[in-house]
Amino acid sequence: MAAIDHFWAVIPAGGAGTRLWPLSRSSSPKFLHDLTGQGRTLLQGTHDRLVPLVADRFVVVTGAAHRSAVLEQLPEVAAARVLGEPAPRDSMGAIGLAAAVLEREDPEAVLGSFAADHVIPDREAFSEAVRVAADVARDDWLVTLGIQPVFPSSAFGYIHLGDPLPGHAGATAVREFVEKPSVRTATEYVATGRYRWNAGMFVARPTVLLDLLATWHADFAGALRAIAADPGRLEELWPGLPRIALDHAVAEPAAAAGRVACVPSSFHWDDVGDFDSLAALLGATATATTVLGDHDLVRVVDASGLVVPGSGRTVAVVGLDDVVVVDTPDALLVTTRARAQDVKQVVEALKAEGRSELT
Amino acid sequence: MAAIDHFWAVIPAGGAGTRLWPLSRSSSPKFLHDLTGQGRTLLQGTHDRLVPLVADRFVVVTGAAHRSAVLEQLPEVAAARVLGEPAPRDSMGAIGLAAAVLEREDPEAVLGSFAADHVIPDREAFSEAVRVAADVARDDWLVTLGIQPVFPSSAFGYIHLGDPLPGHAGATAVREFVEKPSVRTATEYVATGRYRWNAGMFVARPTVLLDLLATWHADFAGALRAIAADPGRLEELWPGLPRIALDHAVAEPAAAAGRVACVPSSFHWDDVGDFDSLAALLGATATATTVLGDHDLVRVVDASGLVVPGSGRTVAVVGLDDVVVVDTPDALLVTTRARAQDVKQVVEALKAEGRSELT
User: Fold this and answer.
1) Which end of chain B has fewer CB atoms < 10 Å from its terminal CB, N or C?
2) Sequence ranges of the domains in chain B
């Protein structure tokens, strides 16, 4: 299949991934790491997955501190298309800036925004959904991909599907976006069959996205367009931008205004949110230990879980189930898959103590 | 209290301590480590405990490879009294060699043999028991200290007490030494009140010990006396010595012959056999984590057990009870207190793979 005409991939490469500490650090966040053990980082995997859809039409938006690392990992992407944010402004700032740049560069552009740190093994199903979404977006919809829930997660927001979209097989209207629910509410959602996980994947014409933003945040949209018109104003205008997610700034009010469509999809998607989900992604079972890294460094007696030998040292695990051991040159984590979410407490404590060199 | 006249401390400093891997290595065994966190190694603690009883009358017997480390840790002990074994020959070789040396050096000597890697916090009760034992030994008994069992352990041999020893308050005859029993048998032993743990602490006149050895192993005793008479013959005679414990070579047959006495004692004794017993020794509880080393390197969220931060790296433990984490520069162990015995399986596997640099 050929690339989609005038379709651009926008990759916001941000987020600290504190629940993946000590692998992920503010100085070296999750997207820069090969967490699948296949020789490509999450950022590179995101790029590889999109090449068949966009050829070389990429815009990456990342923190200024990570720009050189991104360029090093993605030599195929032109340096001018790796935008460095002077400070984090959440997804609306990042994706909005890319939209403003593309609005000027390609009047026929449709952009799709895909986070740099997600994993989607089934590339064919993903591509098929994106093709449908791009087609819908050309009719001026803000389109989101809706992930089939695998279990009633309370960690994700949900998309409440509406009626089928006339003229676009495989797409529906969106009634609303709902915030992370309780497990009980999520169970009800999943039972209806009318809810999808919101993975934050949006497809739209840049002008549509920015005009929607302008409807509710006129100054925000104006500042983004001013930066695109004169990149020299980035440092002046960026600090004044609100720190807000695209979901809140645009997607939620646009859904209420009947402007959002969804392409419900069934491909497996994983945001690798913590070591439990990383273990699952790597195929960990209840009876064996999964190793991310050099197997020769790991010795196991009666244990299961995830071991990441990342310092060159031998790691021995004896008699623990569903354990998580992450070994790095300056910090070591020992926890369980069930407690993987609580790793962020360690990071918060280290930050509070001023041990920023470790976080 | 003054030192005991002509009483000599013999410290066999051997044993690999594989269940304390990766802290204890064949290149740096358990007795060279400060496992109590009080600034003195187990060897130094053994020395300190005996100084009030012997003043400077020490003989240490250790592997040739560890002789310089022993001298460094015990600068108070004359180099000539730190004997290096060309090869390990178990406790009979080590203690017998010291006995043969002392037999020539001090005809009135009584020796007490105390392993370099045990912990006895109650020094007063220990001293009192040794004073009684030395007194009994002058009447040509082979005397052993009998440890009051704290629980029905299947990890120790037991001493079966006989009748009180006439003329020696606080001492009894020994009916027999019994090998490590099952927990069930140990429970029966403990219930009778007539059994004590055998901690391998023997007190005797050197000539008595060697003559007893000569009764059952004449060549062995002869070789030890020949080495003492001409230390130049050590390399020639040592390799031919049997590899046998003093318990089997002398104590068991001597007990059968009615030559062994016991001083039943109530001091707390710990052979720090594995990380579970080390955790208990350090006061670990079910609700808190005990740190052996620099507390500043450890971050804990809802965990209990033992953490040994030994590489300078930060160690974070989240949501695990009774866990054991031992961090060293080249190897890391993660296990539980309940599985602490199985650490030796890791060491055996590493040895089998030829990874001797790690063991």
Assistant:
1) N
2) 7-265, 275-358
Amino acid code (one letter) for B296: D
Q: From the candidates A318, A320, A336, which should be mutated to test the interface with B, based on the most B CB atoms within 10 A?
A: A318
Of B316, B342, B358, the CB nearest to A314: B358
pLDDT by position in tens, chain A (length 359): 799 999 999 999 998 788 999 999 999 999 999 999 999 999 999 999 999 999 999 999 999 999 999 999 999 999 999 999 999 999 999 999 999 999 999 999 999 999 999 999 999 999 999 999 999 999 999 999 999 999 999 989 999 999 999 999 999 999 999 999 999 999 999 999 999 999 999 999 999 999 999 999 999 999 999 999 999 999 999 999 999 999 999 999 999 999 999 999 999 999 999 999 999 999 888 888 999 999 999 999 999 999 999 999 999 999 999 999 999 999 999 999 999 999 999 999 999 999 989 99
| Three-state helix/strand/coil letters over chain B | CCCCCCEEEEEEECCCCHHHCCCCECCECHHHCCCCCCCCCHHHHHHHHHHHHHCCCEEEEEEHHHHHHHHHHCCCCCHHHEEEECCCCHHHHHHHHHHHHHHHHCCCCEEEECCCCCECCCHHHHHHHHHHHHHHHCCCCEEEEEECCCCCCCCCCEEEEEEECCCCCCCEEEEEEECCCCHHHHHHHHHHCCEEEEEEEEEECHHHHHHHHHHHCHHHHHHHHHHHHCHHHHHHHHHHCCCCCHHHHHHHHHHHCCCEEEEEECCCCECCCCHHHHHHHCCCCCCCEEECCCHHHEEEECCCEEEEECCCCEEEEECCCCEEEEECCCEEEEEECCCHHHHHHHHHHHHHCCCHHHC
* A276 near B CB under 8 A: no
Local structure of A352: helix, strand or coil: helix
Could you give the CA distance from residue B260 to residue B177 in angstroms, rounded to a whole number? Answer: 10
What span, in angstroms and rounded, lies between the C-alpha atoms of B60 and B241?
19
CB of B267 within 8 A of CB of B145?
no
In B313-341, which positions are buried (b, 16+ CB within 10 angstroms) versus exposed (e)?
bbbbbbbbebbbbbbbeebbbbbbbebbb
Q: Could B318 and A339 be called an inter-chain contact, meaning their C-beta atoms sit closer than 8 Å?
A: yes
> Which sign, positive or negative, has the C-alpha torsion A137, A143, A145, A149?
negative
- Inter-residue contact A160 to A256 (CB < 8 Å): no
Contact A342 B313 (CB under 8 A): no
Residues B106, B108, B113: CA angle, nearest 5 degrees? 80
Contact B339 A302 (CB under 8 A): yes
- What DSSP state is assigned to residue A108? T
For B36, other C-beta atoms within 10 Å of its C-beta total 18
- The CATH superfamily label for domain A7-265 reads Spore Coat Polysaccharide Biosynthesis Protein SpsA; Chain A (3.90.550.10)
**A64 is written with which tokens?**
């200024």
pTM of the model: 0.90
Taking alpha carbons only, the member of B27, B15, B21 closest to residue B340 is B21
Chain A positions touching B327 (Cβ under 8 A) are: 332
CA gap B248, B240 in Å, rounded: 18
* Token output for A257: 């205004």
Would you state the structure tokens that stand for residue B24, as one six-digit string?
A: 């204890």
ipTM: 0.89
Specify which residues B306 forms β-bridges with. B290, B324
